[in-house]
Amino acid sequence: MLRRPLPLAILVFLVAEALFLIGLTVPHQFVFDEVHYVPAARALLTLDGPVNIEHPLLGKWLIAQGIRLFGDDTLGWRFMSTLAGAVTVTAIFAIVWQITHRRRPSLVAAALTVLNFTVFVQARIAMLDGFMLAFLAAGIAMAAAALRNGGLARWAMAAALLGAATACKWLAAPYVGFAALAFVLLKREDPRRFPGLSTTVALGVLALVAAVTYLATFAPAFFYRDAPLTLATLLPFQLEMFDRQTQVLPAHTYQSNWWTWPLLIRPIWYLYEPADGAQRGILLLGNPVIMWTGLIAVVACWWGWVRSGSARLLAAAALWTGSLAVWAVIPKSLGFYYYYYPSSVFIVIAIVVALDHWRARTRGWDTALLAASLALAIYFYPVLAALPLPDANAFRYWTWFPTWV
């Protein structure tokens, strides 16, 4: 049974969810941007009026459902984020399965995603990025299934998931265009692909379903007691969101440029202060073994594609490269390492696809990489899970470079 993808995917989800739930409620206070998103979720529960209007509603609405289920405390704030993290891990498993159709690289990809620090941290905090990536990765997995196996229903579902990702954060919007480009290129390469589904119909379905899904998530705002949305103000409201997204912000201690993120030059301390009776810290940092090995894998994938024309290598390299390149054109006045979150996950795909492509030469490398990644995960665990630290200077154990302080 566990040789089939669906039972394996369910197992991956359950294991990831169990790991993310351990110690979830600590610390019993707001962490980092929870100070923005939990109040916005509360406002959606009561429908008082617009709060945190620079972002769409879906991610905040999902946080609100956790509060509705478990109460207005740290479990309620963060529970839905654990589900988003587990979905992300499972979706990476599914993407690699679609690319390789092999069990080992798919499971290695899931394990590396869990050990990659960024998913663990984002799965245990009430922020929008985790929800965005869960829908985005699931949408990419569904699009890969549609592009590989055909089917209008799969394609429409992929469009809906990409629309939902955009309804969490606008960062997901370019991936609708990436999906359209992938369809056009594959159809041009072999016009016999996707029988009965023309390019015009496919692109129309993609755009329409994604747009309708995105706009539908604003439904709660029509029922606000104060300043409710209307059909006449729905589109102008998007322009107001854009203005807020692109406003010039003052300098920030943790700001960084997008080209520094792959090198781990400026990570972020989401928390470093006394909490729950002890000194605690939460460091958002990609697992150095995975992050730096991943850069080599991306280069190898691009090189292998040039040499062999392998579509698998191209897909893996282009996904990571595109996810980072969008920041070269996004009009944000400040950048932060957590913007690298999708890329920090997609780099895992490049690693396992490269190892699988050259598996005759790299036998056992995946095991060594997993062992090294696990060792670092254990080493950094106290400042990933907000465990009690010895004293206020304990951060020195984990800050390898001055810019990590």
Can you walk through the features of this model?
The protein has 405 residues and is mainly alpha-helical. Helices cover 60% and strands 4% of the residues. The longest helix has 27 residues. The chain is globular and about 60 Å long. It is built from 15 helices and two strands.
Q: What summary fits the major beta sheet? A: 2 strands, antiparallel
The sequence of SSEs as H and E is HHHHHHHHHHHEEHHHH
How many E-type strands? 2
Distance between the ends: 47 Å
Which spans have pLDDT < 50 for at least 5 consecutive residues?
none
Shape summary: globular
SSE-based structural type:
mainly alpha
Strand ordering within the main sheet:
1-2
Mean pLDDT: 95
Provide the β-strand percentage band.
under 5%
- Evaluate the radius of gyration: 21 Å
